[in-house]
Amino acid sequence: KLVDFEKPDNNDFLAVRQLRIDQLETKRPDHILFVNGLPLVLLEYKDKFNQSTTIVDAHKQLGPTNYQRFIPRLFNYVSFLIISDGSLAKYGTMTGDFQRFSDWNDPDDPDKPVSNRLKMMQNLMLNKETLLDIIQNFIEYESDGNKPIKKIAQQHQYLGVNAAVKRTIEVYPQKGDNKIGVIWHTTGSGKSLTMILYTNIISQLKELENPTFVVLTDRKDLDEQLGSFYEKA
Question: How confident is the model at residue 189, as a pLDDT?
């Protein structure tokens, strides 16, 4: 196995600063996180005190007109990207617009002020266990008909799916209806992706004996939407 997802400490983790990469042009990404020699997370920073550049510029630098164009082989391996100016930090995928990049907050107090979100992300998202869990279970691929789209779970999806999986495992051996409850979502919060991520993890658990999933909707347009979503995923 290239990565031991069951025992994170069995892997070799390395963060490399300003690694020179020579392809179509020479580039030096600010930080690359390697797992067993695989470059899996790419980070780009901007100085928050430099008013001529912002975190948006960091996103553009990693985009299809710069790094993805001139050092494309690196992106064969990179699972997700992080952009930051120190006080702000967001993560997303190589196909995601800036608006699709997300925060990672303290789950115990998501609204508390944070002076350095990059440090918080390093502690709460980039620790060995969470990082490998995200790479293994919370990245999903679709297609818009012309090109592949790579998606990564937002924090509420990551926490919600893991809580639902844990509860499912606890309830499954019990007698009776084995009900585990509901995850409530608002419009546009990613219900379909949450369903995909949950069913993917559950389907691989041996103790659940190859489960069958039934998706119920209350409108025909949802039938079409979810049917199309599952076909593309």
Answer: 80
Distance in angstroms (rounded) separating the CA atoms of residues 203 and 112: 36
Tokens of 61: 């630098």
Q: What pLDDT, on a 0 to 100 scale, did the predictor assign at position 25?
A: 96
pLDDT in tens, 6-60: 999 999 999 999 999 999 999 999 999 999 999 999 999 998 778 778 999 999 9
Give the integer Cα–Cα distance in Å for 197 and 200.
5
Buried b (16+ CB within 10 A) or exposed e, 183-205: beeeeeebbbbbbbbbbebbeee
Per-residue confidence (pLDDT) for residue 180, from 0 to 100: 73
pTM of the model: 0.90
Distance (Å, whole) CA 212 – CA 189: 25
Map 125-188 to HEC letters: CCCHHHHHHHHHHCEEEEECCCCEEEEECCHHHHHHHHHHHHHHHHHCCCCCCCCCCCCCCCCC
pLDDT under 50 in the chain at which residues? none
pLDDT score of 50: 81
Q: How many CB atoms lie within 10 A of CB 30?
A: 18
